[in-house]
Amino acid sequence: MDIKWNTSLLDLKNLIGISRGDPDQILKYLEQFQKLIPPRLAQLQQGLGKKDREMIRKIVHQMSPQLQFFGIEGIGTTITRLEFEYETLPMEELEDLVKHLIINLESALLEIVRIIRTYFK
Amino acid sequence: MSLKRIRSLIIDDDPFIHNLLRDKLQQHIPQVEVVATANSGEEGLQAIEHFKPEVIFLDVEMPDMTGFEMLQKLNAIPFQIIFITSYRHYAIKAIRFNALDYLTKPIDLGELKNAIKRCRAKLGNASENNPLKQALINLKTKNAADQTLILHTQEGSLHIQLSQIIRIEGERNYSRIYLVNQKKKIASKTLKDLEEILDDKGFFRCHKSHLINARHILAYPTRYSLMLSDQTLIPVARRKREAFRDWHDRMVDNPVKTLTQ
């Protein structure tokens, strides 16, 4: 599969590397992102509502490898801070970081949906 | 020559890691067969019982228990373990202190190949699980001085109780470990590597070439040097003096006992 990927938020070089151009493999990872991220975003919202720092850290920690794999633009520092400064960040700043992450991941999700629709359906 | 197949099990709460690891193994190390995956420590225990794997890829942090807690529930560990963790996870220190194999997420192919190579060499040799057994003992040992540092050397594994280490001297790519009773060991780790795994266990880098054990400080006669239990005088670097004094005061007031692994 030789596609000129038109992405603004995602860097798909890891995906292309692991799938070796096999469309079924590419789709498997894209669909997994589409499946796993929304419930985690909902959990993040819950954590935010409860002001539960540990819950937020756990969700971010769990998502982090997949987000790194998809090379999502502009969230590296946010993830690092949420994972490692979650105990000491002022609550307001923590909330801002979580909201920033959610907004970016929702955009990334839209991009994934668009890629699936454009190239696979 | 075809390599023997290895039966492996992946225990991680992230399905993405299951996919990624399985695909990387299939593509690059097909001799390692993934016989099952598990999403939690509890599922992992059942899968171990059922599939009897030879190698387990084990997530350090899972929702129901840590990887170490899962291992502590087993009567025997007749398999090799490769831990999976993120690079800056708090457990990485414990893993390195105990010289255990690990991969960082998302999985790096070079790290994976090297870990499998080391596992293959250890398979079938029960004594090769000693670092893991020692790691589980270390985790239960509250007093840092009683913990045992494990280092791999060309001659095999080196096990050194922390209370026995007086100081460590760095020499480019290796370090000389000075022990009580005038014994000395060489480790193929830099002083920086050792500092990273020992700095919360009562050790302090007081000079670019010296890492010292608080338990062996006999005297702090001047601002520029300190005397250790083997009668050596170790310099304290100018830029480390203040940090050393603070650390030394803390150690005197509150010696390291409990460790976070």
TrEMBL record, chain A:
One of its GO terms (molecular function) is protein kinase activity. InterPro entries: HPT_dom_sf (IPR036641), Sig_transdc_His_kin_Hpt_dom (IPR008207). Keywords: Phosphoprotein. GO terms for biological process: phosphorelay signal transduction system. Residues 22-119 form the HPt domain. The modification Phosphohistidine is found at H61. This is HPt domain-containing protein.
From TrEMBL, chain B:
InterPro entries: CheY-like_superfamily, LytTR_DNA-bd_dom, Sig_transdc_resp-reg_receiver, WalR-like. The modification 4-aspartylphosphate is found at D59. Keywords: DNA-binding, Phosphoprotein. Residues 149-250 form the HTH LytTR-type domain. PROSITE patterns: HTH_LYTTR, RESPONSE_REGULATORY. PANTHER family: REGULATOR OF RPOS, RESPONSE REGULATOR RECEIVER. Residues 7-120 form the Response regulatory domain. GO terms for cellular component: cytosol; protein-DNA complex. One of its GO terms (biological process) is regulation of DNA-templated transcription. Pfam families: LytTR, Response_reg. Signal peptide: none annotated. This is DNA-binding response regulator. It comes from Flavilitoribacter nigricans (strain ATCC 23147 / DSM 23189 / NBRC 102662 / NCIMB 1420 / SS-2).
